[in-house]
Design goal:
D-Maltodextrin-Binding Protein, domain 2, Arc Repressor Mutant, subunit A, transcription, WH-like_DNA-bd_sf, 9 strands, DNA-binding
Length: 294
């Protein structure tokens, strides 16, 4: 099958990105009727509907969703190719990342990045949810995983490694001579799979502690605060709590760290790889990570 007319693809890309015929028409400088006509031509050509029309909006059909991502990416690449290479086409860099990385590592560094790029506004959002770049005002994400996300350019930032930590006061009350001694203390969020992994690698039978009541918190930052207050042992990333470890407000009783082969990655659509703001932020992050290693 030959490539459909560009006008129809252009209309489909805008409607799929906004999930709105009205907003697509405004962006394209067309009437809503003209956009609907182009979509109808494309649907007739493909022999299947691309959108489900609902009383309160529209959604992509299965076929529509199949075509939407590559079409949006293709137009993103075209916009990038024809943009002025010397101009930053976005005045705001919108970053979405997970809460712990934002609070423990990224947010203290963003001020330096913004000061080095005074003409660029920076916005940080925290979320664990998957971002749909075609429909959300997000420039880049930092997420945990293996980096194999279709359609996205991904750069590995740091491996995810965990180990138990606790306050020196709690350690004085209950000295830890061997990993099994941890079972004598309250373990924060004992359902965290890193507890089972770390204990198994340390040769400790952790199964007897399953189902025990305990304190479960939503993020590593909350768990760290609870550990600082002496309420239990938290499973934390040493990289994120270097200050607390250096000052002695938290103690890492054992050298062993455990990982599941996951890392934090900077990711964004491939079509955005040459945007000046993203290039600057990518270089900044990689420099900061390298500085951490040193």
């Amino acid at each position: 099958m030959s490539v459909p007319p560009l006008a129809a693809l252009r209309a489909f890309e805008a409607v799929a990105r906004h999930l709105s015929f009205t907003r697509a028409a405004e962006e394209l400088g067309m009437t809503q009727a003209a956009v609907s006509y182009q979509i109808r031509l494309l649907e007739e050509r493909l022999g299947t509907p691309l959108f489900l029309r609902k009383p309160r909006g529209i959604s992509l059909t299965e076929t529509g969703a199949l075509f939407a991502r590559p079409t949006i990416d293709a137009f993103d690449m075209l916009r990038e190719a024809f943009a002025d290479p010397s101009a930053d086409t976005i005045s705001t860099l919108s970053i979405s990342t997970v809460p712990t990385l934002a609070g423990a590592w990224l947010s203290p560094r963003l001020g330096k990045f913004q000061m080095n790029n005074p003409n660029l506004a920076v916005r940080l959002e925290t979320s664990d949810d998957i971002v749909d770049f075609g429909r959300e005002d997000i420039s880049v994400v930092i997420r945990a995983g293996t980096g194999d996300w279709p359609g996205l350019e991904a750069h590995q930032l740091m491996s995810i490694e965990y180990t138990p930590m606790l306050s020196p006061e709690l350690l004085r009350k209950c000295p830890l001579d061997e990993p099994a001694d941890l079972l004598k203390l309250p373990l924060l969020d004992r359902g965290d799979p890193y507890w089972a992994l770390w204990m198994r690698e340390a040769g400790v039978d952790f199964t007897a502690s399953y189902g025990k009541p305990g304190l479960t918190l939503s993020t590593d930052l909350h768990e760290a605060r609870a550990a600082l207050a002496g309420y239990g042992v938290a499973m934390l990333m040493p990289r994120f709590f270097r200050h607390e470890l250096a000052t002695g407000s938290l103690v890492q009783p054992f050298a062993q760290v455990s990982d599941m082969g996951r890392s934090f990655w900077l990711a964004y659509p491939k079509g955005r790889r040459n945007r000046p703001a993203i290039r600057k932020f990518r270089a900044f992050l990689l420099d900061e990570v390298a500085g951490d290693r040193e």
